[in-house]
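Q: Got a minute? One more chain.
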Amino acid sequence: MNHTQPEAADLLAAARRLGPLIRDRRDESERDRRLPASVLSAMHEARLFRMYVPVEYGGLETDPITSIASRRGRRGGGRRHCMEPDDRRDLWILGSVLAGGRRARNLRQYRCGCCRWLAPERIAHAAAGGYRVSGRWAFASGIDHCAWWNGGCVVYEDGAPRPTETGTPQTVLVFFPATGGERIDTWDTGGLRGTGSHDYAVRDLFVPAERAFAFDASPRVPGLLYRLPCQALLDNAMAAIPLGIARTAIDTLIELAATKRPGRSDQPLAERLTVQAEVGRAEALYRSGRAFLYDSVDESWAAVQAGRKIEITQLAMLRLARTHAVQAAVQAIDLMYTAAGGSSVYTHNLLERCFRDAHTVTQHVSMNPANYQASGRVILGLGPDRPLYRL
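A: Always. Here it is, folded:
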């Protein structure tokens, strides 16, 4: 295996080179509700799936700024359909090797699905040498090309939740081969269709203890990257996706406005004062959302590099920045969708897909506007109202 570490600029260039292929395959992705095999293969060859994997396991340990930049598509259209699910899977590859301490000979062998939120019916019954797991999870992006899946569970012992030292139920993230679970075809959606985020389930499946770890477990490798909260790494990357959609929407409207003459007008759309103002607003929204996200990620990364603990205020700002990036991007997209007029409702117009995908992103629990409240509590000095690893 080649362990040569590429420069950040090389990774970004590799991601950009995938643009034409992804654009050519975006209709296939939409139709088949999954990442096309050709795109998946190209991303493997570009080593994009290894950015969060430890160097000692053949990964790149890419800094978080480069990581989110590589996910933020520009004029890519379909790029947003493929980057998000596989970025998520890479994070859980990391979780697998950290939990089990095993050396991955073939990173493709360790592709994993995404962890879903805990619920009482997702149970890991303590057993000799591991757990007997039963449950059903939703929104498993990229599951169709995953060899390993995982899920969050409440640990049960003697018929009741096993308490932690604080009295709350113990929780674990369990990993298991895809062959041990059932993929349930549920992903028939308006937006983000190409992510293939189907449901999945297991029933009384034995999972060895070495394939389970606590959500707040300490990392088992020394890299600075793994001192960042695991959930923050995942959500920071996800927040870059709607920014890429917004960039595409703005550029699409600019291109359209140069030639489109609405109604009986003999002037192109670009000459309309209202359109000029909306493009200006959209650009400001996009750039402000991007700047706040990058600034917050950079601040937390600087703290880690300096050996400082990431304080609760920084965690709150990361959540606030992610939420604002998504909301600002959606506002920018809505402006461009409206400015384009009636042509934006047709599926051949990229703005139609931008609109659908962006509004689907807002329904993710980590990107919902309700998260303004979670950060606001901390800013007001009231403290968080949820576990730190979920903040």
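A: The CA atoms of residues 11 and 70 lie 7 Å apart.
Q: Perfect, thanks.
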